[in-house]
Amino acid sequence: MRHFIRIKKNNLVCFYESASIGLCYRSSFNSYYFSYILLNQDLNYEISLPTQKLICMNPSNDIQSDHVAMAIILDAMENRAQEILKNGNVDFFRIGQILDFLHNYADNLHYAKEERILFPAVMDATKPWISKTINNLIHEHALARDYIKEIDNHLNACLAGNADALPKLGSVMLKYVELEKNHIKVEDDMVMPLFKKLQNSKKMEGFKFEFKELPDKKIDHLKYLEYYRLINILSTENIYGRKAGI
Predict the structure, then answer these.
(1) Contact 170, 88 (CB under 8 A)
(2) Which sign, positive or negative, has the C-alpha torsion 28, 29, 34, 40?
(3) Tens digits of per-residue pLDDT, 142-153?
(4) For the CA atoms of 98, 86, 177, 246, what is the dihedral angle to 10 degrees?
């Protein structure tokens, strides 16, 4: 599938081909901010003058773009864990990159989008199961953070020369991957359809304002570019093997 950047200016929509889909993120491009998107999604953008900022007006697509990026990260993490457990090979460099993304993007920004915007927006939906589902998802965020702390500790022990920590590292990585993949599936299948129904409601106005401000407060643009490059590399490695991603 070919992927594109779509920029709308003065009612003219232009498409710029991207190397691949990745993170939905903001960076400088001809004095605008833009997001990498799938061409076949119905996304709405507007130019806010005089600041000339391209604003994503569809938070649900942004969150699901994060999930696409996370799927690539999780597959790469699973591959590294399997290598550790099957033959004792460990790629400290890639694991370090993955952990940096999980700390700074997944935990610091993506979870914030969900906990401050997505979950509160759908909590009062007229569904008997929604409250329990959201509480479970919040609990899973906490559990994921605990797993990441364990991974950090085992990784540091490995780097310090503790060979016994290596299989523990691989095992906890797999636990994290399983948790997150199931977590994302629940959000995509159960929570996001409710959230999409709220897109044009008055209730969403405040959430949209916070949504467009949140990324700039959490991560700078150079870091976004670093993560986009990482996701491209890992996506290639997941398909063709590690040598192809170098």
Answers:
(1) no
(2) negative
(3) 999 999 999 999
(4) 30
Domain spans of the chain, in order of start: 3-56, 59-245
Q: Residue 24 in contact with residue 6, Cβ under 8 Å?
A: no
For domain 59-245, give its CATH number from 3.40.50.720, 1.20.120.520, 1.10.1740.10, 3.30.750.24.
1.20.120.520
Query: CA Rg, the chain, in Å?
Result: 19
Count of C-beta atoms within a 10 Å radius of residue 153: 14
Question: Which CB contacts under 8 angstroms, 24+ apart, belong to 29-33?
Answer: 29/5, 32/7
Q: Give the angle 178-183-189 at the CA atoms, nearest 5°.
A: 125
Q: Are 224 and 26 in contact (CB under 8 A)?
A: yes
**Residue 53 φ then ψ, to 5°:** -105, 130
pLDDT tens-digit map of 67-115: 999 999 999 999 999 999 999 999 999 999 999 999 999 999 999 989 9
DSSP-derived 3-state class of residue 76 = helix
Q: What's the one-letter identity of residue 40? A: N
pTM metric for this prediction? 0.75
Q: How far is CA 133 from CA 43, 116, 119, 189, in A?
A: 27, 16, 10, 12
